[in-house]
């Protein structure tokens, strides 16, 4: 369960980071380009460049038409290192999880995951409820845990990109990642129950 759980968490981060459609929804709905003096189309280009910079180890500079302070650049470099670390975890634990699941499928033991997955989803549901009512505090705590500096506190005057990254977008990112967890968990439960039915 630990191996599979880490793999699912890492996969959810990878999917969420690369799902530019979620940001596009907020850009169009809230006209975010206006906040930084760009068209929505230009802002999306900048955002896609940002995702490429964060994901690709061979890209060492974010091509952006927006002003960025040295602290802003440092923060995005810190985020890049975390995402690259997550990608490494995904490769390692994704492979291990594949081996574990393959062995359990072969031995018809997937049903043993039903109860622990249900427990995990119950805990996740509780956390989602807490997140919905206290997202701002959790978001701040999230940054304080992951980053040892204060570079994540942006000044809109020197780093206008923060104007185009609203808090509700990040909240949606968390919920999207949780949706991946839930779907993966339901998939495991479904397969386990299917296995039990065949065994009767």
UniProtKB/TrEMBL annotation:
InterPro entries: Lit. It comes from the Bacteria. The chain crosses the membrane at residues 6-26, 83-101, 121-142, 169-191. Keywords: Membrane, Transmembrane, Transmembrane helix. The keyword Ubl conjugation does not apply. This is Intergral membrane protein. The lineage of its organism: Bacteria, Bacillati, Bacillota, Bacilli, Lactobacillales.
């Amino acid at each position: 369960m630990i191996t599979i759980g880490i793999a699912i968490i890492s996969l959810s981060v990878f999917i969420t980071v690369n799902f530019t459609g979620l940001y596009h929804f907020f850009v169009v709905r809230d006209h975010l380009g206006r906040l930084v003096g760009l068209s929505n189309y230009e802002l999306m280009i900048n955002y896609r460049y940002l995702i490429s910079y964060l994901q690709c180890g061979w890209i060492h500079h974010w091509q952006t038409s927006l002003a960025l302070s040295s602290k802003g650049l440092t923060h995005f470099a810190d985020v890049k290192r975390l995402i690259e670390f997550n990608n490494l975890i995904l490769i390692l634990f994704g492979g291990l999880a594949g081996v574990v699941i393959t062995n359990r499928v072969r031995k018809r033991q997937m049903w043993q995951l039903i109860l622990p997955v249900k427990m995990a989803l119950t805990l996740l549901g509780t956390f989602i409820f807490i997140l919905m009512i206290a997202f701002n505090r959790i978001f701040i705590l999230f940054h304080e845990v992951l980053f040892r500096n204060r570079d994540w506190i942006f000044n809109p005057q020197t780093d206008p990109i923060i104007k185009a990254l609203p808090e509700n977008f990040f909240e949606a990112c968390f919920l999207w990642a949780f949706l991946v967890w839930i779907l993966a968990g339901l998939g495991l439960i479904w397969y386990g129950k299917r296995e039990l039915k065949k065994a009767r």
